């Protein structure tokens, strides 16, 4: 397995574990130039992104990701990751499918931060 | 609407129209350094990518994309696009959900080519 795929797997594991435990702690993964497009709503910057994620109208959430495909995204060491999975909120018994794409960029200190983040629920095809 | 979103919309419209009419013609959208990850299979280079897409085991395909969210992906003018939609193959009546992420890079001649391409079918959450 290429190195970028290992980084992507580790990131995705950490991201959703953190999201499901305490969304506020995601702040360390974003920077001021990070972008989130959440169900068509664009937000820029770590503070706004975490405020958005923290204000989503559920108390409990559980992400079960099933695929995370990675590719190198730039000569500078960026990594593109596309995730598909399912999530459960609160006491809801029926999971919803979702897809999420991240571009991770090196943070200059041996780790990565989220530069691009796009999230969509995926509804069953009619 | 920001310019990158307009480019993304135009690209997605053209990409799926070309895919559904004649997959061989997608060759002009890729370069030798382009990457495709198609249902977990990685392929590099325009020739291999088009060979893969052309050999998919269906004669007819119709993509109906429903969302295409775009963000700037690099200082060099790259554009990240995440698509969700449904597709129908051959005489099948039941559409399948899919998601696909592209990174478009400027080709130096006023247009763009596909540098990253990741495709996954999305199955209903169990």
TrEMBL record, chains A, B:
Q: Which Pfam families match?
A: NTF2
Compartmental location: Cytoplasm; Nucleus
UniProtKB keywords: Cytoplasm, Nucleus, Protein transport, Transport
Q: Does the keyword Nucleus apply?
A: yes
Q: Which GO terms describe its biological process?
A: mRNA transport; protein import into nucleus
Q: Which GO terms describe its cellular component?
A: cytoplasm; nuclear envelope
Keyword Nucleus included in the entry's annotation:
yes
* Domain (NTF2) ranges: 7-121
Task: Write down the superkingdom of origin.
Answer: Eukaryota
Kindly give the InterPro entries that the UniProt entry links to this protein: NTF2, NTF2-like_dom_sf, NTF2_dom, Nuclear_transport_factor_2_euk
Query: Which function does this protein serve?
Result: Has a role in nuclear-cytoplasmic transport of proteins and mRNAs. Facilitates protein transport into the nucleus. Could be part of a multicomponent system of cytosolic factors that assemble at the pore complex during nuclear import.
User: PANTHER family in the record, alphabetically?
Assistant: NUCLEAR TRANSPORT FACTOR 2 (PTHR12612)
Q: Tell me the protein's name.
A: Nuclear transport factor 2
**Species of the source:** Xylona heveae (strain CBS 132557 / TC161)
* Source species taxonomy: Eukaryota, Fungi, Dikarya, Ascomycota, Pezizomycotina
